[in-house]
Amino acid sequence: MNEQTKYVLDEAHLPEAWYNINADMPVPPQPVLNPQTLEPVTPEFLNVLFPMNLIGQEVSPDRWIEIPEPVREVYKLWRPTPLFRARRLELVLDTPAHIYYKYEGVSPVGSHKPNTAVPQAFYNKEAGTQALTTETGAGQWGSALAMACNFFDIDLEVYMVKVSYQQKPYRRVIMETYGAEVFPSPTEKTAVGRQILAQDANSPGSLGIAISEAVEVAATSGGTKKYSLGSVLNHVLLHQTVIGLEALDQMEMADEYPDMVIGCTGGGSNFAGLAYPFLHQNFTNGKSTRVIAVEPTSCPTLTRGHYTFDYGDTAGMAPIVKMHTLGRNFVPAGIHAGGLRYHGMSPSLSALVHNGDIEAQAVNQLATFEAAIQFAKAEGIVAAPESAHAIRVAIDEALHCKEAGDKKVILFNLSGHGHFDMGAYNDFLQGKLQDYEYPAEAVEAAMAQLPEIELA
Amino acid sequence: MNEQTKYVLDEAHLPEAWYNINADMPVPPQPVLNPQTLEPVTPEFLNVLFPMNLIGQEVSPDRWIEIPEPVREVYKLWRPTPLFRARRLELVLDTPAHIYYKYEGVSPVGSHKPNTAVPQAFYNKEAGTQALTTETGAGQWGSALAMACNFFDIDLEVYMVKVSYQQKPYRRVIMETYGAEVFPSPTEKTAVGRQILAQDANSPGSLGIAISEAVEVAATSGGTKKYSLGSVLNHVLLHQTVIGLEALDQMEMADEYPDMVIGCTGGGSNFAGLAYPFLHQNFTNGKSTRVIAVEPTSCPTLTRGHYTFDYGDTAGMAPIVKMHTLGRNFVPAGIHAGGLRYHGMSPSLSALVHNGDIEAQAVNQLATFEAAIQFAKAEGIVAAPESAHAIRVAIDEALHCKEAGDKKVILFNLSGHGHFDMGAYNDFLQGKLQDYEYPAEAVEAAMAQLPEIELA
To answer: What are the pLDDT digits (tens) for A335-380?
Structure first.
């Protein structure tokens, strides 16, 4: 055990540019469609929701996008994050594999989400935005954006899925600590919310509904408010690439290179953040790292959804993109990985899975918590339930290596800590959790409801 | 803002030895007394509770105590911890002072407590201990020891103050995640617990009661169980000095030296961990850093308690030490800094305050949360309510510097994050918290009840 376990970079080694996978996509980009006209969106349409500088990043063909100095200054509050060699876990598993993890839980809110929240707040401030709206499920994204908006002096309204607002008040409080306003969604503040409450006054809400509300508030604000999304979009994913760019340097410090890179996927942002810089090496530098996206069986977007055009939100107000989707009305089971319960997926990630550049796997909830507890007992860190999906597959792959006597190098993203999620661990320890695997008919029925959208 | 904000050390710079202030105490040590005989304790008496190797550290005159390699290996899971220059806070305060903070919240359980939990588990394992008992209030200590015992394969029973067990289940769950058994104290498992429950079946418990229970279980185990304490004792404080030893290196990286070192004090361990290595410089190297211990006005042990011999626990089963104390029956108000609600204080820290080497200040709860929120908005990190006491005084001192035009260097210990304490922030934001300052008569009455212990 007397070898290095932690690879730290000082702030002089913070990346100076984000990596934009648009420059290296092996397949042509698909258009983003206006949900009313079904025609490709115009920048003017998107500008109702997003400032032009972020729209520019969304479609930029540039491989490298410079990180503005004020963003780097905030990043330095927790970045570069450490890369660990999981030596204790390797011993427990008795595997010849070398397991590394990049740990994003050291940010002030305990997850990777500030990596994009901070630049989004910065670019909005640059563009003159005075207020932002957003949605949040369990609250990881909302707390990150609340911190970022506070730093750049922007007001923030967060539409928080009502059941989480009621059952997980701690993330609400951290948002309020940073000065954000938080509303339990569905609310009476929007037409979408009022319509849903008229049908069911006790609606527990969903991420899709909360997105619709946050989008409606921005779209009807007469330009005073913009909207911010914490995953899925290209500018979000590219902001996250600081994770993988740092990890490339840190793997070099460890004098190894990963045979596998693993991350969990909800909308795709933490996964892409780690994986895309390694895909860049695959595409342009002759590397052949396996890149594995892990999702829950209860929301099997990549493994069982269709790759087609669909709406980003429940109400059909958000732009239409080509992606893996279970349909905008898909209601995933109430698993404890709130960040992985989105019906769709990032378009670039979907295209790369479709093209065979990225593998996708789905894992069950119980096996995921078993992996999380094995990891906590070996490495100390109690992972967020989302991140535990990556741990599960990393352990599985390390055990395959043991069987095969194969000394592979495995790298996964530990995207956040679980200190806000101990209720989920409690349920698991008390035997209250179960697995959710959708029967084929249920998935077929959902797929049959997908809109058939022909390009205009 | 384009200057360094974060000073990181790689694991090669992890300290190789702890600093033991016994070697440099400016006043002679006071004896520890057997609570039954009132005579100085023998190692045999202490050995009922603690293994001989830790008893040896308790009374060691050696200035440096080598950190065993297996302990350093575990430390590397989060240490060295970062030192930050709080540039954003300096800007907000518009102060000429330079404010630094050492951040212990990056440990897997979010606080400094594992710094001693890990060596205590290691030394117990070395001594053949198979099971440990301990108490915990809000759960910071219990979760740290649960992680440590898991690493060294020792069983752990935690007696958790019942009101926290019921109201703050998350820390209980993290202890259980690492494999510990947690009981709401008072329990029916001990004579002390049964006696208290007989008087009040609904007793909410207290830290003093929980200590008595954990001590009783170890003392009556026939040698199969030892007891572990998370603060107060010399071996605990010296394990924490990795904090200050790293900070000395990091201040040198920053090319500055602190005029003031500040920490919060409950039993004294995080404070001593940062401060004692700087006191060592004061004592032996001609430095004259002001060293400031901060406690809550609701438990004003150092500022209003007496410096005298008193029992370490409520039931009078623990050894008697000379310390600042409010009396073992003192019940502090229900403030949200659970770690600062102990009636006594570390003997060495008490002696150093008595001798004038350390200053003590008490701060109110509301001002403390105001400081915590100002800090969170400036620096991002939401602090544990305990650590917020140090923030309050650091901000006060920085504001004094502003008035005086004085460019002082301030260093404080941010001993943990507040992600488990958002209920307290919620109460503060909703205006439900209040200040507790004891009237002089109440303190006098408590002091009148202190035992008059003459050395035998």
So the answer is: 777 788 888 999 999 999 999 999 999 999 999 999 999 999 999 9
Q: Omega into A96 within 30° of 0, i.e. cis? A: no
pLDDT digits 0-9 by tens, B27-46: 998 999 999 999 999 999 99
What domains can be seen in chain B, in order of their start residue? 6-14+68-110+235-447 (3.40.50.1100)
- Phi, psi (rounded to 5 degrees) for B50: -125, 150
Q: Which of A8, A69, A84 is closest, CB to CB, to B10?
A: A8
Å from A267 to nearest chain B CA? Answer: 25
Chain A's closest residue to B1, CA to CA, is A73
Q: pLDDT by residue (tens digit) across B285-320?
A: 999 999 999 999 999 999 999 999 999 888 888 899
Burial B285-307 (b: 16+ CB within 10 A, else e): eeeebbbbbbbbbbbbbbbbbbb
Q: CA of B92, closest CA in chain A: separation in Å?
A: 11
Q: Tell me the pLDDT tens digit for each residue of B215-262.
A: 999 999 999 999 999 999 999 999 999 999 999 999 999 999 999 999
Nearest to A147 among B10, B151, B380 (CB): B380
Confidence class of residue B2 from pLDDT cuts 50, 70 and 90?
Answer: low
Residue A5: closest CA among chain B residues belongs to which residue? B76
Residue closest to A335 by CA, chosen among A93, A212, A216, A164: A164
Main-chain phi, psi angles of A58, to 5 degrees: -60, -40
H-helix segments, B365-439: 365-379, 385-404, 422-429
The residue assigned the tokens 């990881």 is A140
